[in-house]
């Protein structure tokens, strides 16, 4: 697993995180878990919960740096909500130096928007991670701006790889669909747990038992998928006895109006929303 590559994570210089909520916080925890020197990590976030701030402060992370405390970090990781980009980009521009790579995880925020708020020629990477990053099992799709040098792209890759796998695309237009599949994807899986549990209740199970069964089923299936070299289709077939119970369920799920068109519509909606956010 890439998140567990050998040797402590080395960014070759300070790293500034702007926005340390769910996604930024997961990245920061991943960096610390991978051995990045906490004294080289700076965080700007005006609304951190005190217990989170205290945990990072105690780890040695430096919170709320002023421009004089840090100039030209190796990387700036931007992880505010897309709607807050206009407030956060000036801060990034203030701290960035000519060799800083600015890595954004903001949904629907294009390389052009990022570049417009930064100095001419600033290296920029647009990335789309997902929340399993919080347990080192994320997957991030990225695209690098034209001004980004190979070593800056490598640094972005190392920082994102600290929390899971990383894939690069050359065409920025693909990032909207990456968002629709893997950025938002964990929510679809959690909804599956919720709806499977509800269906269990409808089939006669007590609610708590249905929730346990649904949750453990998705956890176990995910782990089996992770550990198996078989494609999901084979793992599905392994559950399905001819004329058995699974076949009966799959007849519903794989019908013309079953899960496939529903998932296609859901991913298309997320992809479309990512494009809308880009304006
Ligand atoms: N949550 C998810 O599943 C994923 C989120 N993303 C992207 O990550 C970004 C952050 O999302 P979440 O972490 O879910 O949101 P969040 O609300 O948990 O975190 C955002 C953080 O930014 C801080 N913030 C707001 N304005 C700021 C400013 N001007 N300067 C510094 N910090 C500021 C807030 O206090 C907050 O802690 C979004 O752009 C989202 O599109 C990307 C992939 C997955
Ligand atoms: O819902 C969102 O907009 C963000 C981006 C991908 C996951 N969460």
From TrEMBL:
Main location: cytoplasm
Catalytic function, reaction form: L-proline + NADP(+) = (S)-1-pyrroline-5-carboxylate + NADPH + 2 H(+); L-proline + NAD(+) = (S)-1-pyrroline-5-carboxylate + NADH + 2 H(+)
InterPro entries linked to this entry: 6-PGluconate_DH-like_C_sf, NAD(P)-bd_dom_sf, P5C_Rdtase_cat_N, P5CR_dimer, Pyrroline-COOH_reductase
UniProt binding sites for NADP(+): 18-23, 79-82
EC number: 1.5.1.2
Single GO cellular component term: cytoplasm
Broad class of enzyme this protein falls into: oxidoreductase
Molecular-function GO term, any one: pyrroline-5-carboxylate reductase activity
Domain Pyrroline-5-carboxylate reductase dimerisation: from-to ranges: 172-277
Family annotation (Gene3D superfamilies): NAD(P)-binding Rossmann-like Domain, ProC C-terminal domain-like
Known function: Catalyzes the reduction of 1-pyrroline-5-carboxylate (PCA) to L-proline.
This protein's name: Pyrroline-5-carboxylate reductase
Organism of this sequence: Hansschlegelia beijingensis
């Amino acid at each position: 697993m890439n998140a567990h590559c050998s040797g402590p994570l080395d960014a070759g210089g300070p790293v500034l995180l702007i926005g340390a909520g769910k996604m930024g916080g997961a990245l920061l925890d991943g960096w610390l878990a991978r051995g990045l020197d906490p004294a080289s990590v700076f965080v700007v976030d005006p609304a951190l919960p005190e217990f989170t701030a205290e945990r990072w402060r105690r780890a040695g992370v430096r919170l709320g740096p002023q421009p004089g405390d840090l100039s030209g970090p190796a990387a700036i990781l931007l992880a505010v909500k897309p709607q807050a980009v206009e407030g956060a980009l000036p801060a990034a521009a203030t701290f960035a130096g000519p060799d800083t790579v600015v890595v954004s995880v903001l949904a629907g925020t294009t390389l052009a928007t990022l570049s417009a708020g930064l100095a001419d020629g600033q290296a920029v990477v647009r990335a789309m991670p997902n929340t399993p990053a919080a347990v080192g099992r994320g997957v991030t799709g990225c695209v690098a701006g034209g001004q980004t040098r190979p070593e800056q792209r490598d640094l972005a890759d190392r920082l994102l790889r600290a929390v899971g796998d990383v894939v690069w695309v050359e065409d920025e237009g693909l990032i909207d669909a990456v968002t629709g599949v893997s950025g938002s994807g964990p929510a679809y899986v959690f909804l599956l747990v919720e709806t499977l549990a509800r269906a269990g209740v409808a089939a006669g199970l007590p609610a708590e038992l249905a929730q346990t069964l649904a949750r453990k089923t998705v956890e176990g299936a995910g782990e089996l998928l992770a550990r198996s070299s078989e494609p999901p289709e084979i793992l599905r077939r392994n559950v399905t006895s001819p004329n058995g119970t699974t076949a009966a369920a799959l007849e519903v799920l794989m019908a013309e109006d079953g899960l496939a068109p529903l998932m296609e519509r859901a991913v298309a909606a997320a992809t479309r929303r990512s494009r809308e956010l880009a304006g």
